[in-house]
Amino acid sequence: MRAWFARSGLTTKLYICVSVFNIGAPPPQFQMKIPTITGTIDRRILINYQVDKEVLRSFLPEPFRPKLVKDKGIAGICLIRLKYVRPKGIPFNIGISSENGAHRIAVEWTENGELKEGVFIPRRDTSSKLNAMAGGRIFPGVHHHADFMVKEDQDNYSVRFKSEDGTYLSIEASPTKDWNTESVFTSLDIASDFFKQGSVGYSPDKTGEVFDGLELKTKKWEVSPLNVTEVRSSFFENESVFPKGTIKFDNALLMRNIEHEWRSKGEIQA
Description:
It contains four helices and 13 strands. The chain has 270 residues and is mainly beta.
């Protein structure tokens, strides 16, 4: 059985006492169920690659398979800065903020005879030590603690992180009105709709035998294109997983100031 590690950064100060006493992994029969979490997506950058479908098929665990666009799989990184994250109904000033990076693969799977779609998240990194401690214990998925370096204004976005295990990512980008003509998506609208459908994400728990689900609900969905002058990813540049010539940058999208909720979607057995 392949071991998988993942997930994003959200929990709140209200969970500190719980995470302190729940240091180990959840008991075998434990099914993670969190309350609805609310907050603001202050900034979200979606870096997207087109990937050889057979490479993704060999990488993905059952029951997931790559969702294809023009016979290519789609993978990437979500760089998201969250603010005022808290259980729904709690005053916003109780919430926490964090920078987070999630490696994602667009997937499909069959559940009770019905075709489903979303993303599989093999890895997440976070600036929050609280998120890293709680991830996989009281919140879905393992979180890796990382140092984030962010410089941004209305014209430029520079985001870098390096995790404690050496995993790194960097991007330099700026807003643009032009769409990448080499993208597998023929327009911004088509790309936007594709990624909007990937609102449900599944992450491996600490055992790698259960995938915990989480759904992102946004009050609105607005994306704009970014012109990327540099992007580096140790995860996607690992040629033992993604051999040279099997992965290519496709596009990058920007979202700002989006009210949102995270809702538990239960789990899938590997």
